[in-house]
Amino acid sequence: MSAPGTPGGAGAAAGVGTVAVVGTGVVGVGWTALFLARGLHVRAFDPAPGAEDRLRADLAALGPFPGHDGPLPVANLVFAGSAADAAGPAGFVQENGPEREDLKHTLLAELDSAAAPGVVLASSSSGLLPTTIARGAARHPERVLVGHPFNPPQVIPLVEVVPGERTAESAVEAALAFYTALGKRPVRLRAEVPGHLANRLQAALWQEAYSLVERGVATVADVDAAISHGPGLRWAVLGPFANQHLSGGPGGLAHILEHLGPPTERWWRDLGQVTLTPELAATLVDGVRDELGDLDGSALAARRDSVLAALLEAKSRTELP
Q: Where are the transmembrane segments (predicted)?
């Protein structure tokens, strides 16, 4: 797909020089920071009152992130008067609206009418199916797909690229090339499923974590410690299959499946099924409060992101799959 909107003197990613960021909440702020840091021009829009002031304040408050240290080039940021105004001159559109089908359809209709035909409309939706989202784009549903980042987008490399039933292969290839040029690690899904890939994997872990707390097997702090000081350390370097393979010694994954497969199947059958009752929700919230105490959430997130940046830097210097 062609990518108009490359202003003179701007940086470019896979031929794109101007990006529309529609929706400037937490995810939109992260995308905007990343695009600016990579030398792109950004046309942002959000209908909420005071959205421009909040966006600029949030950008100013961001600390360093991988590939960028210092003030962001906010001179390359324009806050548009509408979603259509943001999308019209853009070579790529990153939509970050609320997770509601009706709002997505209204927003996609406006973007589809304004953006040039060759421009990808990528939704940051964390769970809605791209086929569903594309129903709002009557003119060109073939350029609609999900480009779901992992939060915060300016730090975490993963982007899930999910085509819908009518998405053109050229749109998928354009999105993969664009995100890769930004330094992201896009993963293409071969089928649509609610929640895409990473959120479904997280949901499986949360299900058992919530169940263990509900059954009194462990506290919230115990669960967090078990992951962050245990398998989570390895998962940050290699994925679950590669790590399992390494656990098998010379026999690799085949050895693990032969010897630990049967007990693992028994564990699967014993995993808890939970319902988020008000009582369980209160237990989880109280558990996090007890675990973190008076720690400021923003300060803790900044510390986390600093460690993530160091980890990503180390990974960039190490040959890994």
A: 12-37
